[in-house]
Amino acid sequence: MKVGGLLTSAGINIGLCVLFLSLYSILRKQPQNVKVYFGRRIAEENNRLRDAFILERFVPSPSWIVKSLRCTEDEILATAGLDAVVFNRIMVFSVRIFSLAAILCVFGVLPLNYFGQNMDHVRIPSASLETFTIGNVQERSRWLWVHCLVLYIISTVACVLLYLEYKHIARLRLLHISRSSSNPSHFTVLVRGIPKSRTESFSRTVESFFTKYHASTYLSHQVAYKVGKVQKIVSGAKKVYRKFKHFKGTTVDQRCRPITFQCCFCGASSNSFQLLPSDFEQESETPVNGSSLSLPDEECGSAFVFFKTRYAALVVAQILQTSNPMRWVTSLAPERDDIYWSNLWLPYKQLWIRHTATLLGSIVFMFLFLIPVTFIQGLTQLEQLQQRLPFLRGILKKKYMTQLITGYLPSVILQIFLYTVPPTMMLFSTLEGPISHSERKKSACCKVLYFTIWNVFFVNVLSGSAISQVIALSSPRDIPMQLAKAVPVQATFFTTYVLTSGWASLSSELMQLFGLTWIFIRRYLLRMKEDSDLLYSFPYHTEVPKVLLFGLLGFTCSVLAPMILPFLVLYFCLGYVIYRNQFLNVYCTKYDTGGLYWPIAHNTTIFSLILTQVICVGVFGLKKSPVAAGFTVPLIIFTLLFNQYCRKRHLPLFKTFPAQNLIDMDKEDQQSGGTEDLHQRLHSAYFQFPDTDDIPLEGVHTAGRHEDGSGTSGESSREENTADEPKSDLSHPALDGLPVSRLRNAVISLGSIWRPQKRELPL
Amino acid sequence: MKVGGLLTSAGINIGLCVLFLSLYSILRKQPQNVKVYFGRRIAEENNRLRDAFILERFVPSPSWIVKSLRCTEDEILATAGLDAVVFNRIMVFSVRIFSLAAILCVFGVLPLNYFGQNMDHVRIPSASLETFTIGNVQERSRWLWVHCLVLYIISTVACVLLYLEYKHIARLRLLHISRSSSNPSHFTVLVRGIPKSRTESFSRTVESFFTKYHASTYLSHQVAYKVGKVQKIVSGAKKVYRKFKHFKGTTVDQRCRPITFQCCFCGASSNSFQLLPSDFEQESETPVNGSSLSLPDEECGSAFVFFKTRYAALVVAQILQTSNPMRWVTSLAPERDDIYWSNLWLPYKQLWIRHTATLLGSIVFMFLFLIPVTFIQGLTQLEQLQQRLPFLRGILKKKYMTQLITGYLPSVILQIFLYTVPPTMMLFSTLEGPISHSERKKSACCKVLYFTIWNVFFVNVLSGSAISQVIALSSPRDIPMQLAKAVPVQATFFTTYVLTSGWASLSSELMQLFGLTWIFIRRYLLRMKEDSDLLYSFPYHTEVPKVLLFGLLGFTCSVLAPMILPFLVLYFCLGYVIYRNQFLNVYCTKYDTGGLYWPIAHNTTIFSLILTQVICVGVFGLKKSPVAAGFTVPLIIFTLLFNQYCRKRHLPLFKTFPAQNLIDMDKEDQQSGGTEDLHQRLHSAYFQFPDTDDIPLEGVHTAGRHEDGSGTSGESSREENTADEPKSDLSHPALDGLPVSRLRNAVISLGSIWRPQKRELPL
After folding, report:
1. Do B640 and A474 touch (CB under 8 A)?
2. Is the pLDDT reported for residue B632 higher than 80?
3. CB within 10 Å: which end of chain B, N or C, has fewer?
4. How far apart are the C-alpha atoms of A435 and A97, rounded to whole Å?
């Protein structure tokens, strides 16, 4: 590729980007797109933009860029959570290190490469891009020490920046914990692998275990239930209600809405209750007397156990409980909204098999993916294509068809295949059995990351046919040499990859093409009412790997082929602005890992650095400069040592919480007298049924809370009530007017098998 | 090698073994060797065998074998600790699995190999050993499924046995914990990385931290001191005393001994106290008033913190304490005798560097070792030798010299080099900074194990020059094939290795050649009095790798070259008897890892199994039997899954203690009222100076205990004494007659800077 070609391509892509950004700044002002571009804010503020037609709406404006840049880190933390801040820090780190690298390499290394060999220099625009890579430097050149020095500077600065970011994020993580002082998940331990007893229910087993071994700190517990008959009825009712609501249109909608915000048990009758068969109440007496819907079958071997202090919960979560490590497995519970309920009742014993199986599965998938890649590479060679698919011969005689098929078809097919990767990895991660949405997404993020690095970087670098790649992999000692040969050559491809795939993905992220299209189809083709289903949480599992891949490309190409760096810096700057905007306006944070994406980013960056250094050793070796190669080796050791230090110094904070902070928080609570209040709220914090959709069944949830809250407060006044029967204290003032039997039936049938189990407090 | 040659070699080695065993059974009856062969029992029972000259002493007898076989596991556990039991179980496992393998392979596989190819079968004694390996089976032979089946049976039985052993040892480990109910180490947490404060001493910092964050369970603490001036004086005094004792002979010895068992402060004057300068007492006032020997400089950033219950100690040991993971690093303390004091004051921050550096160091050592190996391999080729060392030409003309140099010299040099390995690895492990002797030995064991497997197995299998080996290693995909080619060929070498190195090492272990020689030299050449320095603890770091290496050889050769198995079974049977005898009679158990050698043995066995299976896949591939190769692959996956299961099911028990057991023990203590007693003993449990040698300074130790015990009991009666000064409560009845000032000086100067810091108990 010539420089002219690259610049043309860059020009076109910049033009497209500017076009898309302008388009975005117009589209975002259109009222019909407000759900696409301001999903989070709509959900939060429940307001609507004005619907009037004014000219301002059709003039592009950079105001959103200014807003995005002005917003502080604290604002992002408050609106989008710690993970968003971590993502933002990854962008900041990338912008910083690649700006420095760009300056150093473009002004220091690039001229050396260009004037390295006494070749006939043509005019720059028509010079081959390869004259700008290290491939153009003479063997045994004295100037290779500049490359080595620049590599040293970049590595050192990257390490320093990484350290500072790690420190900053660790601090934020601690702050995040101490700020969310009323977070019930800090008091809650998820216990799995509860042994099945023939005589006792799970609930009794849990109670007797924790009263025996953690009597001083144990507060209460709540067994998780398998979604069985009742949940099916509930979800069936939900579906019917949804359809009902949709077909009746706005009238039903408006009639229903006020009712849904009232407690269903406070006397108000709603549509949803009419959906339940009237004989359901009579039937529901049966399970309480214990026969068909016998609880131990429906319970699963896991429970939420609440403790009096955060520290006590942490201790129980971290300590091996019994001599069988597969039983009474404890871990800090995820937050209520983060729990992935359908994995909660997987037997703990299965999990290691699932882990191993999905690991094997994703490795197999990674390698199977080579097959379409090879096939596509075959497509670019016209002769092969004609041989394989003879019927195409007629079509391929036309020139524009040839161009289309060889030029666009391969990349389109590749892109389609690539789009299947994140959902597949997400599926693998789901099968793995994580108990929280955030864990699932994090696990998928790692899988996609490995996949991307393998399939975009290594397969392209070690290109050729798929089989020759596997052979190349089988001789690790030759890999530095092979990489050293291949990376400068492939740098052109990577540069165009940044220009096209990188910038295009940013534009499409900003434009929310999928959302726009979907809204268009719904409104003008299907003629459906808009609903609020467009609220997504940020797709970390696709965006983090993307950004880290570009970081990898940047590091590996930096010294060897510096032409990529300016484009990369532009990508990161643009990404910085766009992603901030998206966090503020589009995505809704439903769950948070608490900054656990940072160790992934850190490890990947260290990997990129070491890969770069190894490749440089190989390149210096190829250039017969043993001094430069020798000087680079200590850098590898230094980078590894730095990583080891970070693992010791910061990583533990991302695996657990420090006792000191939790104890301090506990003490503060005690001094402010907020403990009792917190404990009462705990009982209802992990209510399992139903989800917090805005449909009338919400009422059951509230009723459950009422029942529970009253149960707790009522308990202190009636200690003699030590019966084993499910508690049905319904002393809440709002419920006073209702007959207890009806309430009880309603709670049992809908709120279902959930019964809060409370421990008798010792007096 | 021919079968006849092998049988001759076996005959000679068996004869030698019988000779050595008989010799041992005579030598052990000689009174002058009693310290060599009954070191442990002498140390324990303080008795001497009769010195009379009777004929029985010179008749070999198998009584020791019977005794060794009759002794139960409980006896071994009681006399030699859990590690010895683990070692014994490794032997039992090996005997079982290789007996089965020997039966299966000798009767099932061996005939198939022998009749595999239509070659001219000569008479068996002169048949080449290679006709018994799988190399003799025809390509595409239908009988390869027998090999595959036998491999399946061996792998499955090995896994089942491994599982049972793991379970058994895990149970023993728990039993070991619950039996040692008064073990102070269960109540003690070793805290490292205590932050240095300008205003407070370490002791005050520790106290304020634990009173703040673990007030309800914290009992007291004891800061570890750097061995400074005082310790030098103490060890100097020890040395002088030792020499003094040696030169004065028995008279001084007998005069001293009774005194040493009395408390030095009870009025009895001993020799040792005369060694102290008389003006020492006056000098020793100075440090207390705080100047030259100012405490904060001598203290190191680590302390033993005592807790009220075992569970509390476990919790503090497991939880991350503060937001800086390099500070307030807690771990359960090793037992008093196990502590490696000189590593205790290494700054915790250094440890990760030390770990990485020693890791790198041992890898470099492993590869550097190839140089002498290559050199020695060169020695076996006479022409090369003559070329390199021309002056040898004259000598080499004589035939017996040639045989000597080519036959024995290489193995002698190799053995000498091999003898340097365990001390070197021990040195590396010491530099790594472990805080206990057992940890150090375990770490050395792992290093020696990797070294042995690499240098004996892989280097021999992939033999040739050292450089070609490294190249062979660099292409992992070819390794199964290379191994498949090499292992059957090298099986002959391994068989003779078992015969010579294995059996010889057992004989030399039994004979205690080093001890015998040393005693002979001492008595008849140096004419020194015997002393009790011959008490060694069992060298797990050399014996465990040896046994595991033979296991590896057995598994890898089993199906491919079954001739090795009968010899191996004999080795393990003999080893079983001999090691049991050694545990019972010779070695003294000073410290114990609590069964932590088992996971090492388990992992190595799994590694051996998988290596065997991979090699078999290679061999089946070479024999062009894709069915057999294909059937072996699931076996590899099954073995990996089994290992994963064991890691989940049993390994956690070897990393921590289960809360349930500790809480049960705590409750038992409370119910039996033994808690107070235990707490009082805790204060003196980790007394730092001096060691428990049987020299007069023992007295100081006792005094320290007295002082401390009285301090604790006295404290409850005098709560108003909250002064910051070092406590010198000397209300023990035995000390009543002495002037306090003298006692105080003595304690300060000798027992030195150790001051028990007790917490004021809240009333």
Report:
1. no
2. yes
3. C
4. 36
- What letter represents residue B649's amino acid? R
pLDDT tens-digit map of B4-14: 777 777 788 78
End-to-end Cα, chain B, rounded Å = 83
DSSP string, B288-299: HHSSTT-HHHHE
The answer to whether A478 faces chain B, any CB pair under 8 Å, is yes
Residue extents of the structural domains in chain B: 3-178+437-655, 184-334+659-757, 351-432
Residue count of chain B, please give it: 763
Measured CA to CA in angstroms, residue B718 lies from B721, B727, B760 at distances of: 6, 12, 10
Strands A218-225, A757-758: pairing kind = antiparallel
Q: How far is A746 from chain B (nearest CA, A)?
A: 40
Chain B residue with CA closest to A476: the answer is B474
* Partner residue opposite A319 with nearest CB, options B174, B318, B644: B318
Among A158, A262, A248, residue whose Cα is nearest residue A643: A158
Q: Contact, A488 vs A134, CB < 8 A?
A: yes
> Quick one: chain B helix, strand, coil %, rounded to 5?
70, 5, 25
Under DSSP, the state recorded for A128 is: B
For position B254, what pLDDT does the model report?
Answer: 37
B260 and B700 Cβ atoms separated by less than 8 Å: no
CA distance to A598, B314, B579, B647, per residue, from B82 (Å): 43, 21, 14, 20
**Best mutation target, A323, A479, A655, A661, to test chain B (most B CBs within 10 A):** A323
Percent of chain B, pLDDT > 90? 23
Vertex B668, ends B666 and B669: CA angle to 5°? 65
Find the range with the poorest average confidence among A157-166, A678-687, B188-197. Answer: A678-687
Are A325 and B640 a contacting pair at CB < 8 A?
Answer: no
Max CA pair span of chain B: 99
Query: According to the per-residue pLDDT averaged within each range, which of A410-414, A500-504, A532-536, B737-741 is highest?
Result: A500-504
Q: Is the peptide bond before A60 cis (omega within 30 degrees of 0)?
A: no
- Chain A's closest residue to B326, CA to CA, is A649
Q: Is the pTM of this model over 0.80?
A: no
DSSP run (H or E) holding B329? strand B329-332
- Across the interface, of A476, A645, A660, the residue whose CB is closest to B474 is A476
Q: Say if the Cβ atoms of A659 and B471 lie within 8 Å.
A: no
DSSP labels, B690-714: S---SSTTHHHHHHHHHHHHHHHHH
Mean pLDDT for the stretch of residues A316-333: 90
Tokens (6 digits) for A670: 């005690």
Which helix (H) or strand (E) segment holds residue A271: the answer is helix A271-275
Alpha-carbon gap, residue A494 to B31, rounded angstroms: 82
Average pLDDT, chain A: 75
Q: Does B331 touch chain A (CB under 8 A)?
A: no
Greatest Cα pair distance, chain A, in angstroms, is: 99
DSSP B248-267: HTHHHHHHHHHHHTS-GGGT
pLDDT at B209 over 70: yes
Residue type, position B398, single letter: K
Give residues 344 to 363 of A whose Cβ lies within 8 Å of B: 352-353, 356, 360
> According to the model, what pLDDT value does residue B757 have?
41
CA separation for the pair B145, B112 (Å, rounded)? 11
CB atoms within 10 A of CB B225: 24
Supply angle C-alpha B452, B458, B464, rounded to 5.
125
> Which one, of A264, A109, A86, A210, lies nearest residue A698 by Cα?
A264
Contact B658 A326 (CB under 8 A): no
Q: Is A138 on the interface with B (CB under 8 A)?
A: no
